[in-house]
Design brief:
- The protein is mostly helical and 170 residues long.
- It contains 6 helices and no strands.
- Helix 1 runs antiparallel to helix 4, helix 2 runs antiparallel to helix 3 and helix 3 crosses helix 4.
- The protein starts with a helix and ends with a helix.
C-alpha cells in the first residue's frame, strides 16, 4: 500500500471514541445503509452490463441477417432500406443514452458512497481506491470502461449508415 493510499484510506475524524456505547446504534445504522448502498451501486453496474450484452447480441444478429440478405440481391428498391436503417439508428441512440444514463447514475451513487464513508473509519472506495487508480487520469493504471462503452453504439450506427450508403448507391 502506498503512503498516498494509506493516508487517504483512514478518516481522521472517525476515531475509536466515535464507537462508544452511546453511538453504537447510530454507527451500525450508517454501516448497514452503506452496505445496502454499495450493493445497489454494484447492481447498477450489473444492469449496465446486461444492457450492453442485450444490445451487442441484437446488433450481432442484425449483422447476420444483413449478411444473408446482402448475398441475395433484393427485388425491392434500395430505398426500402431506409425504414430498417432508421430503426437501427434509433436502437443505437437508445443504447448510447442508456449507457450514458447508467454512467451518470453510478457517478451519483458513488458520490453518496463517499459521503457515507466520511462517517466510517475508512474510505476504501471513495478516497483510497480512486487514488490508487490514479483518479482515472492515468490510462496505464485504470481506464474507465464507460469511455469505451459509449463509442460502441456510435460505431454500430456509423457502420449501419455506411452500409446503407453502399447498398443504395452501389
Amino acid at each position: 500500500m502506498t503512503d498516498d493510499v494509506g493516508s487517504r484510506l483512514w478518516n481522521a475524524g472517525v476515531t475509536p471514541a466515535a464507537y462508544d456505547a452511546a453511538s453504537e446504534k447510530y454507527q451500525n445504522a450508517i454501516l448497514e445503509q452503506y452496505k445496502i448502498y454499495v450493493e445497489m451501486a454494484d447492481r447498477i453496474s450489473a444492469r449496465r452490463a446486461l444492457t450492453n450484452t442485450f444490445f451487442l447480441t441484437l446488433n450481432t444478429s442484425v449483422f447476420s441477417v444483413i449478411g444473408i440478405f446482402w448475398s441475395v440481391k433484393p427485388v425491392v428498391t434500395s430505398w426500402w432500406l431506409l425504414v430498417p436503417l432508421l430503426a437501427l439508428l434509433a436502437e443505437c441512440a437508445a443504447w448510447f443514452y442508456l449507457v450514458r444514463s447508467y454512467r451518470q447514475l453510478n457517478t451519483a451513487k458513488y458520490q453518496v458512497v463517499g459521503a457515507l464513508e466520511e462517517r466510517l473509519p475508512a474510505s476504501p472506495y471513495w478516497r483510497a481506491e480512486w487514488v490508487a487508480l490514479g483518479e482515472g487520469r492515468d490510462r496505464s493504471r485504470y481506464w474507465p470502461l464507460t469511455h469505451l462503452e459509449q463509442w460502441i453504439p456510435i460505431t454500430f450506427a456509423a457502420i449501419y449508415l455506411l452500409g446503407a450508403v453502399v447498398a443504395v448507391f452501389a
